[in-house]
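Quick one, probably user error.
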């Protein structure tokens, strides 16, 4: 039985970080760095509203909205695929 070295990236049960997890963690790190470096206020104009927010807050709000849309599209895709598989089984 081969024992992993103490400094390897595997967990106690042999799992490793996937490419998607590494990309997500990298993206979050870059987002945090961007937010720390950009603390000034910005004026936003949307339709008839005009308001001033710190840029870091605007960045996190936009990132969260984007994540919710991305997650929602994934849920819808999985639902369509499940529905199609059910219909294929009926045929």
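Nope, works fine. Designed sequence:
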């Amino acid at each position: 039985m081969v024992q992993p070295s103490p400094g390897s990236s595997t967990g106690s049960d042999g799992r490793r970080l996937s490419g998607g997890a590494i990309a997500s963690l990298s993206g979050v790190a870059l987002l945090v760095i961007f937010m720390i470096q950009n603390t000034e206020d910005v004026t936003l104009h949307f339709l008839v509203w005009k308001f001033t927010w710190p840029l870091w807050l605007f960045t996190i709000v936009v990132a969260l909205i984007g994540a919710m849309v991305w997650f929602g599209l994934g849920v819808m895709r999985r639902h369509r695929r499940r529905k199609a598989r059910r219909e294929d089984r009926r045929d």
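The longest helix spans residues 55-90.
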